[in-house]
Request: fold
Amino acid sequence: MQQLELYKTIADQYRKFDFHLERCLMTKETVLALNGETRFLDSPIESAEIDAMWFSRKSGPGSVAWEIRLVSSTPVSILEKISDSLSENEHAAKLKEIETRLQGLIATRREALEEIIAENAGAPDDEDDDDDDSIEDGDRDKKPKGNGRYK
Reply:
């Protein structure tokens, strides 16, 4: 499955920068491709609404950099330093909040793309544009737009 290969590629990229793969978030479809495995790339698998990976690495005294990376050919991630002084519950809540932010970011981008597609659905190229390539006689004295030249 192409998605599993993408997990491997991303893990290799992060390893080069000393990040440790903490866990893989996987949709039901991706989990099915693993044929019952409970670990992937030596990390635990968690069922999720998105395919993503959690990475961490030490980030100076008293904090760890945590990054959640969407498993997609388009790199989308959120990186945040988390204090070592947080309790286990606070730490888990913080990671969940970051995961939710990533899902929101993805949803917003998806909605924007769907809007663009809907606006352009069925419109032949350049036929429905508001730009008029011809100049009416009465328009010659109007100030030119764009680069200053009429077509």
Residues 143-147 have pLDDT under 50 and may be disordered.
